[in-house]
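Input record, target 12 of the design panel.
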């Protein structure tokens, strides 16, 4: 898998979860069916990405003050 959770074979971001979600159960690409990684490794990857996203500073957007109309 590459960054952004896309399958290296087909690019699909979807995964097929196994019926028994043990850490060593393998997950598959929902697009092409290839085996991606173990469920436990996938969970750790998602958790690490969430932690990295939480550490990134949020974008601040400048908001102009409303203009008054003379009248």
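The sequence produced for target 12 reads:
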């Amino acid at each position: 898998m590459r960054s952004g959770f896309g399958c290296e074979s087909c690019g699909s971001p979807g995964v097929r979860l196994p019926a028994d979600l043990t850490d060593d159960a393998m997950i598959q690409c929902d697009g092409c069916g290839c085996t991606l990684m173990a469920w436990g490794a996938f969970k750790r990857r998602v958790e690490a990405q969430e932690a990295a996203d939480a550490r990134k500073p949020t974008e601040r957007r400048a908001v102009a003050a409303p203009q008054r109309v003379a009248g």
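The longest strand covers residues 26-29.
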